[in-house]
Amino acid sequence: MDTRVSAPSKILAERSGLYRTPPNLSELRAQAVATGAEWLEADLGAVRDKAGLLSVLAAALRVPAGFGANWDALADSLQDLSWRTAPGYALHLRHAERARQALGPEWDRLIDVLRLSAHAWRQRGKPFIAIIDGAQELPAWP
């Protein structure tokens, strides 16, 4: 009997973090789904300002009514997700290149919020990964 761990086990709390989009995104998505992680997508292609970014992310996360539409509210939502009951989360930020250029320093704030959120989930033993299109400065998915 083969007792090796299969590829789907790669979505683990220890790997919570931010990564650039891998060449074979469908494989990563399959790994996430196979491990029970919820796959969330936010299309940032039309985002040109902070308000637009927060709106797109709130919609992708399906945050409860009353979302504050500011960085603290986004951080709180990403670190809570109690209205979603998956054993882990994978957030894919699609078409992020133009949004990054348009947002300037606000993009850095988003990255900070995502990093803090991934750290919070890792501390709780639950996977949270953010996959970002065009983010060549981020590490590759392991």
What's the arrangement of secondary structure elements?
Layout: E1 17-20, H1 25-34, E2 38-43, H2 50-61, H3 71-80, E3 89-94, H4 96-103, H5 105-123, E4 128-132
Parallel strand pairs: 1-4, 2-3, 3-4
Helix pairs in contact: 2-3, 3-5
Describe this entry's structure for a reader.
Helix content is 42%, strand content 15%. The protein has 142 residues and is of the alpha/beta class. It has a single domain (7-132), classed as Barnase, Chain D. A 4-stranded parallel β-sheet has the order 1-4-3-2. Helix 3 (71-80) runs parallel beside helix 5. The longest helix is centred in the C-terminal third of the chain and has 19 residues, at 105-123. It is globular, with a radius of gyration of 15 Å. Residues 1-9 have low confidence and may be disordered.
Identify the notable features of this structure and list them briefly.
42% helix, single chain, globular, Barnase, Chain D, 142 residues, alpha/beta, four-stranded parallel β-sheet, 4 strands, disordered N terminus
- In the CATH hierarchy, the architecture is 2-Layer Sandwich
Would you tell me the structural class of the helices and strands? alpha/beta
Order of helical and strand elements: EHEHHEHHE
Instruction: Note poorly predicted spans.
Output: 1-9
Number of domains: 1
Strand order of the largest sheet: 1-4-3-2
Would you tell me which CATH topology applies?
Barnase, Chain D
Radius of gyration: 15 Å
Number of strands: 4
- How far apart, in Å, are the first and last alpha carbons? 26 Å
Strand content: 5-15%
Mean pLDDT, all residues: 92
What's the CATH first level?
A: Alpha Beta
Q: Assign a percent range to the helix content.
A: 40-55%
Largest sheet: 4 strands, parallel
Shape: globular
Count of helix runs: 5
Name given to the CATH homologous superfamily: Barstar-like
